[in-house]
Known about the structure:
9 helices, Phosphatidate cytidylyltransferase, mainly alpha, EC 2.7.7.41, two-stranded antiparallel ribbon, lipid biosynthesis
Amino acid sequence: MTNFADLMPRIATALVLVVVGGAAVWAAGPWFAALIAVVCGIMVWELARMIGADQKRSLALGGLSTGALAAAYALPLGLALPLLLAVPMAGIAALHLHRRIFMTFALAILFAGLGLTQHLTNFGLIWMLWLIGVVVASDIAGYFAGRLLGGPKFWPTVSPKKTWSGTVAGWVAAGLVGWAVMGVTTAGIDLIGISVALAMMAQMGDIAESAVKRKMGVKDSSNLLPGHGGLFDRFDAMLGAAVLLFVIESLAEFPPVPA
């Protein structure tokens, strides 16, 4: 029988996240930046706990991350970058084990947070909704296709529940979101490819976090979100997509223009 036992808690928690996140996106500016700073700080705290840091060090690294991202919103980018990089450097000094894991994921969390605030500031509401739509559609399509269609596992030793059917369904859903947004903007067909690439990177973020949890022998990053585990569990996909989008917007014209 198809297992949807976790569906209702996931939906209830997701609705709360949608309300809080939607209000912050709509308010934009310092409200959105503050939410991102707090969420990323909590994820760094969860990361530090997962790799075995004590509560004092975990809280200190999480608080430092929140402060660095809050300052990054208020400061010019050139002055903000050293503050963000200070977090993984502090982790190297404070942690005794798994420093490379902390350094890698803390950097991803911080630069994803920076990328999200800059994305909303520079491109506005419609393009933030597009990004959220790509990640959410990919996740939902993957969840249902994986459970309804089943089939070969994507990477069973790391993420036993993920299937190739769900993975590909996520790509298709993301491409459809890109196609739909093309219809209400002046973006070119490249947007479909970017949407699929973001879905792929979102899936890589999910897989990477699953690999860390498996290595550390933990089921969830924390128990803050019923049905979802921790914030790191819920937003690992968005982290991957946001990092790639930050790179795309830094290197190429965005939104993509028609050919």
